């Protein structure tokens, strides 16, 4: 396989990483809100959060992407296909991240919170100094794993016309008749990207307060 073809795959890989990172960050922001709704004492909010999570965890991502891609024009929102792809990936990962965060916040020892209240800490201080650090430390490995899953799942956005790594590999394989070399190179690129994510996640996790080094 020529260097030119490999460069085209690398360019598509940058597109894949960009879509994935943006989706993961937006998804995390949504997940924080959904997890707060899940832990809310208001049953209606908790019910809405459960419905959201059940839908995006229960429906295949491919169907979600096609549904969003066709739904947006139907309601008058003519957005580029990449925007529809990011919306689909963001909502899907938000459902999984929200469950991870809920588990983390639920695991914060009640005794620590009660002790903080007894010494006069405000709810904001308790959240910032106790709940958030402990929950983040507990859920961080799962969040890194979710990031890797989204990177791989981003290959599905080609169904809505986004030319990411897998779609580029398909196009090049069809035009050069070198499917083995092309897809092996694409697989290697995915492997390297995910290895970097896992390595960076491990380094960040070890730097978190309270984690043995």
From TrEMBL:
Its main location: membrane. SUPFAM superfamilies: MetI-like. It is found in: Cell inner membrane; Cell membrane. The keyword Transmembrane applies. Residues 13-201 form the ABC transmembrane type-1 domain. It is a multi-pass membrane protein. It comes from the Bacteria. Gene3D superfamilies: MetI-like (1.10.3720.10). Keywords: Amino-acid transport, Cell membrane, Membrane, Plasmid, Transmembrane, Transmembrane helix, Transport. InterPro entries: AA_ABC_transptr_permease_3TM, ArtM/GltK/GlnP/TcyL/YhdX-like, MetI-like, MetI-like_sf. The chain crosses the membrane at residues 12-39, 51-69, 75-96, 183-204. PANTHER family: L-CYSTINE TRANSPORT SYSTEM PERMEASE PROTEIN TCYL, MEMBRANE COMPONENT OF AMINO ACID ABC TRANSPORTER. Belongs to the binding-protein-dependent transport system permease family. HisMQ subfamily. This is Amino acid ABC transporter permease. It comes from Rhizobium indicum.
């Amino acid at each position: 396989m020529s260097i030119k073809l490999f460069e085209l795959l690398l360019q598509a890989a940058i597109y894949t990483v960009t879509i994935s990172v943006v989706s993961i960050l937006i998804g995390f922001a949504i997940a924080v809100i959904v997890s707060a709704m899940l832990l809310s004492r208001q049953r209606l909010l908790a019910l809405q959060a459960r419905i959201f999570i059940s839908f995006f965890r229960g429906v295949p991502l491919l169907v979600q992407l096609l549904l969003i891609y066709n739904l947006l024009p139907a309601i008058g929102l003519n957005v580029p296909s990449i925007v529809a792809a990011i919306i689909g990936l963001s909502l899907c990962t938000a459902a999984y991240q929200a469950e991870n965060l809920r588990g983390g916040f639920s695991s914060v020892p009640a005794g620590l919170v009660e002790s903080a209240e007894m010494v006069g800490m405000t709810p904001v201080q308790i959240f910032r100094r106790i709940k958030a650090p402990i929950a983040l430390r507990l859920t961080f490995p799962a969040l890194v794993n979710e990031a890797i899953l989204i990177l791989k799942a981003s290959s599905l956005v080609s169904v809505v016309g986004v030319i990411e790594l897998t779609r580029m590999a398909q196009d090049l394989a069809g035009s050069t008749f070198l499917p083995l070399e092309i897809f092996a190179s694409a697989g290697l690129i995915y492997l390297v990207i995910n290895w970097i994510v896992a390595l960076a996640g491990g380094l960040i996790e070890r730097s978190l307060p309270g984690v043995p080094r």
